[in-house]
Design brief:
- The complex is a heterodimer of chains A (about 60) and B (about 400).
- Chain A is an alpha+beta fold and about 60 residues long.
- In chain A, about 25% of the residues lie in helices and about 25% in strands.
- In chain A, the strands form 2 sheets. Chain A has a two-stranded antiparallel sheet with strand order 1-4.
- By secondary structure, chain B is an alpha/beta fold.
- Chain B folds into 3 domains: about 5-110 and about 230-305, FAD/NAD(P)-binding domain, CATH 3.50.50; about 125-225, FAD/NAD(P)-binding domain (3-Layer(bba) Sandwich); about 325-405, Enolase-like, domain 1 (2-Layer Sandwich), CATH 3.30.390.
- Chain B has 10 helices and 26 strands.
- In chain B, helix 2 links the parallel strand 2 and strand 3 (about 70-75).
- Classes of the chains: A alpha+beta (about 60), B alpha/beta (about 400).
- The structure holds flavin-adenine dinucleotide and iron/sulfur cluster.
- Iron/sulfur cluster (SF4) binds near residues 16 and 24 of chain A.
- Chain A: Ferredoxins are iron-sulfur proteins that transfer electrons in a wide variety of metabolic reactions.
Amino acid sequence: MRVVVDLETCQDHGQCVFAAPEVFHLDENGKLGYVPEPDESLRDAVEEAADVCPLQAIRVED
Amino acid sequence: MPARIVVVGASLGGLRAAEQLRAAGWTAEIVVVGAEPHMPYNRPPLSKEVLAGTALAGSVMLRQRPSVADAVWLLGSPASTVDLDARAVTLADGTTLDFDGLVVATGLRPRRLTDDGHVLRTLDDAIRLHTALTARPGTRLVVVGAGFVGCEVAATARRLGADVAVVDPLPLPMVGPLGEQLAAALLTRHEERGARFHLGRTVTRFERHQVVLDDGTVLPADVVVEAVGSRPNTEWLNGNGLDLSDGVLCDEHLRVEGLPFAVAVGDVARFPNARYDSTPRRVEHWSIPGDTAKHAARTLVASLTGAAVDQPAFAPLPTFWSDQYGQRLQAIGAPQLGTDDIRILEGDLHGDVIVGYHRDSRLVGVVGLGRARATAATARYRMVLSETGKRIATDAGSRLGHHTRLGQ
Ligand SMILES: Cc1cc2nc3c(=O)[nH]c(=O)nc-3n(C[C@H](O)[C@H](O)[C@H](O)COP(=O)(O)OP(=O)(O)OC[C@H]3O[C@@H](n4cnc5c(N)ncnc54)[C@H](O)[C@@H]3O)c2cc1C
Ligand code: SF4
């Protein structure tokens, strides 16, 4: 599974961080970082993260 | 008749409900009925990027999971009545749909003071208001209502160069959810950027190109925006003996008054949050349609397929944000339940600040105001807030270390 975040669109809401903390995190300055190829076992959490992003910045590619 | 679930309301709540019905194992028909002609779109950008003109209307359309590609969308004609005994809903265009299960997702509409003032709820409203505000430079805007929508419209209109006056009978903007200290800090940020506030004042008359207040003040107005709260869209449910006094009353599994075949989601649903207490409340936050849809879909699919509802009572952790002048207000939990005991957790009210709201000395909500760092710092309280709530056993104040008491 590949995760792509459109960082132009992302406004660092951090909602994704709570849905899938193994994949997304905010650094000290509030900027988003993420794991681009997370383990398949995290699919549900990643899809949830894509749902809760208010900017729809997260895409899950197979 | 093959099995069918009808979802009434085709916005965030309706879409998420359809997706979650599939995720909960519903493979039969799903029909989504929507009053607006548009496929589901995202409302938060309407008062921000769409009103500012920096986002195209197309960019706000909500993405859909592939699992709902076979859902049937009936758009442009609202449901006008429903018969819950017969399980049939009738649309304004005369179409009647039988159903096995029903999802109520009809949201809210703005309360109105006049017939011709602007309101902001739909994409069409946002485009119309953007056009009015940019028709000529220095447009004079009067915003009636200093709640969340009024404040965002004021902020965006200042960015567009409009001359902005805001009127509200309350003493501070957004004071209900934020409490006095943070509301005062928000007011300062607006005033520093040139918005003028007439607080503790009501409008007595709307006249041509002006608005008259109860103290005699006359505000010139090329454009008037009414941002005075909303009304739940529940008229179509009349005649079924339901309590529709403030949205649709739900039980702890989002069933409409305990009915096994009907659930409600999103802004229209009035539900108890087991995290806090047993009082049913409506919650107008973007996070709630997604949370309610997930729980309600499981409830409905279980009961339609004869399975037991085996999930704990609904207990979401609400989150809310607002963007004003490039600063973010980020709320987690239920600050409005803790406005009697407000403490600054980090920072100070003139800069980036994080404020804690307590009920019976327990932290029930946190709000951050400021730049991205403040949002990130606010997010760190999420763990604490998700532990408090139901298991309100630890003193949040001492767990969080230092805090300053305000308002002595
Ligand atoms: C301008 C604006 C800005 C916002 N910004 C934020 C923000 O920054 N942060 C945040 O947390 N929240 C924000 N919100 C709140 C958030 O958008 C709502 O909580 C969310 O849209 C609720 O979704 P919903 O699907 O429950 O209701 P709605 O989005 O109101 O959808 C209900 C749908 O049902 C349709 N409908 C009504 N009656 C019928 C009928 N009889 N038959 C068929 N269809 C019907 C309506 O036309 C509508 O399309 C904002 C809201 C607005 C209006
Ligand atoms: S939720 Fe969306 S906007 Fe927020 S940090 Fe994650 S990707 Fe960015």
